[in-house]
Every structure is written in structure tokens, then in C-alpha cells.
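note to self — DONT lose this again. spent like an hour looking for the file last time. sequence + predicted structure for the chain T wanted, 485 res
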Amino acid sequence: MPYYAGVDMFYHYFVDFHTAILEKAFGAFLPRLIVFTNAIFVFLFALSLYVLASYLKNERAGVYTVLLGTLGAGFSYSLGFSALFAGQFELTTNYAFEYGKFFTIPPIFDNLLQQRPQLMGLPTLTTAAYFFYKGSRSHSREGKREIALAGLLAGLLFPFHMFASFSALLLFSLNFLQKLLSTRPESNRNYELYFLVFFLPILLPFLIQMLAGNAQSTGFIGLKPPWAFYFVKDGPIKFYLANLGLPFFLALSSLFKKSVHSHGFFLYSWLFLMLALPNFVSFTPNVWDMYKFFHYAWIAIALAGGSFLADFTFTNISKSSRLRKVLAAAVITLLLVFSIFTSVLVATWNLSTNYSCADVGEYETGLWVRKNIPERAVFLTWCSVHAPVSMIGGRLRVLGYVNWAYGHGFDIWERAEDIKRAYRGDISETLNVLQKYDASYVYVGKEELKNAPGCLKKFEDCKQLEKVYECPSGKNHIFKLKAGC
């Protein structure tokens, strides 16, 4: 693990691999590459939403679904209006997400900007659901191929995003069960099993590797109290109506309007199962990660809400007067605008924030590490997100940002305490930690100095450590453990 040196990877962030290849080829640090690569994934998600909504309803529903599915969100924009009226609104501080507070479900647009695995999970899950459902309604050879393709996509998705792959399996199980219980004559043709034929053989090698890796960790797969136990505030009804907002109201309205009547089971079983799952069980090491199922429910919410808007326009506009047409168009526009206010706050915050990835000194330090330090060398650093020796230099760390390793189920607490001892304790403790984790280098930067102000002098006075680099600004230092120590 690059952020947990000494332990083999058993679940891979393959979605980041293309960035690593490009950076390796160019020999450069390319943090802004995420802007362009993520845009491709967002386009694929929008396209998959449009295709599925067009199949379930019509092309107009596809347009509305894309708007709701990519930009729609809950009522957390009220925080921005409240700050505005109080004269406290700042683009760099007013955000549409409160971790652990009332508005604690991240807007989907937030993840579309920066959550790389989710960016692969959302479009692939939507596409797999489209092919499976379309194929299951056909009894031709083409239908079998579409079901097989759905299983292939869902299986290949597992190493990119396990939860999205699991969600595809749940959708298959629900619809296959419904068909088994159906009394229609064609229900005895179990073409849907082609999904499993192509899904399971791809899934099993990764699953075996993951289970084997689980033996090294503590709780990668383990049941915990439900997500709602930790995060739902002020009652579930108020909480979910506020966090899911107008698109959820539109989705519920489509139930009464019967906007997707013939596809009701497929769509609403998807919606309510994904919403219910985190409220009954949590099986992620960090319970917070169960929120991703709300985003998979959001796909169905956008589909149902978009279909309702399309149905509303077709039934109420085409035969009405010009004034009624204008009023109906205005209502729809307001519904869409209000549903995306939260995403507007997300966008303006990201455009206006001055939070930096790395300063010039850190950038130079990272490039020096690339050129002068062996590729599999292990660094002792503070447990921070940004460390130039890894994010720019590409070298291993004893422990990086704790939630990365904790999210894979590792017992990070011992390493975290060891790192504190290494930086805050006496030099003998530092040397013991280096030996314990086979680390050869010690990094001192702003995070290390902030958390252990006296560590730099301690390392400079140590005879077993040799300073091999200091950036021109004097803010970043690298020490190497001398041979034989």
C-alpha cells in the first residue's frame, strides 16, 4: 500500500491508474489533469442517465434526468441564503455540506468533481442497469447479449468500485426475484441468469484476494450499527426530505402520477432499496462511506423525477393556452433551478477557494525525490493528506492520511501512535519506528513542524541520520538513515 508501506494491496484504485501512467510518461506532477479526466467521467454519467431515461420514458425525460442527476441536490443551499441575509456569506467558506451535522449527505456534484472511484461507479452502474433491464424485457438473442453485457460491466466494475458492483448485483436480484414470482408465461425463461454467468467469474478472483487481505486487516467486512445511528439528525423524515430535496419530492410525485407505470418495480425498488440499506446495516470500516448508496439511489431519484417533469409537460402544456404554457414552463424552470442551488454553492466554493495542493518548495522537494530516491523507498511522514514525497515524489509512506488505510479496514491506530512517538519523543523512539517499518527516510515539512515543533533540531542532532536535502526556502527537509543503523 503506498500509504501503508509493508502491506500488499488487496483492493486497487484502478481508476487512478491512468493518471499514474500519464505522469510517469511525462515525468511531471499533473494535479490539474483531474479537471479533464473527471469531465470525461461526468459526461459518461450524464450520457448513461440520458439513455436510460429515454428508454424508460422519452428523450425529454432524458434531458430533465441529466439535469437532476448531475446538478440536483437537497435544501442545503439554505445555509448559503441564511449566511447571505446575515451578511456573513463568503464564497470560500460557505459550502453546501456539513460533515456530521444536519446536511451531511454530500451533493452528488461534489463527488462528480473529485471522488474518483465514484466517478467510475455511477456511469457504469447506470449503464449495466440499462442493459440488464432492457435485455430482460426482450426474449431475443439481442436481449441475451444485453444481459450478458450488463453482467460483464458489473463484474469489471468491482475493482473500480466494490459498492457500485454490489449495487448492480442487488438490482439483478430484485428483478430476477420479481420475475420468478410472476405468473406470466414468459417468466419461466430465466435469461437473466446470463448476468451471473458473466458477473461471477470476473468477480471471484478479486473477491478471493480481498478476503485474503481481510485477514491482515480488522474489519474490512464487518457489520456495524446503521449509518443513520451515527449521522441522522432531528428524525429521519425531516432529515431525508431536507437532504434529498426537490428531486426526491418529484420522484415521489411520479409515484402518484404513474409517470413510469410499466417500469415501476424496476425503478422504485432500486430507489427505496438503496435508501433503506444504510439505515439497516453498515459494513464499511468507516461507517461514513455508506453514504455512497444514497448516490446510487440518486440515480433512480433523477430518473423518476425527470420522468415526472416530462409527463407534466406533455399532459399539461400541449393542450393548454399560451399563458398556461408559459406558467408551466416557468414552474418547471424554477423546480430545476432550485434543485441545483446546492450544486452552485459547491461550484463557486471550488472556483474561489485558495487552498493549495503544494507550494513551490514542496513541488521542488517532490521532484527531487523522484530523481534521487529509489522507487520503493519508505518515508516516515506525519499522517497528513498532502506530503510531497508521495503525491509528487511517488514514494511509499509508513502511514499516509489515516482514512485511506482505515477505509480498507486496517488497524491504523498503532502506526499513528508510532508516528507521534517518532516525531514527538526522543531520538531512540524515532530510530525504533524506522526500524520497525523498514523506513529509510524521514521527511520534515509544514505538517511535521506544526505537530512536532522540535523535531527538526532533534533529527539534525542525530548522528544516525544524515540530511540529504533541504529545499531553497528552508521549509522542507529530508533525512536518510545511515547504513548499518
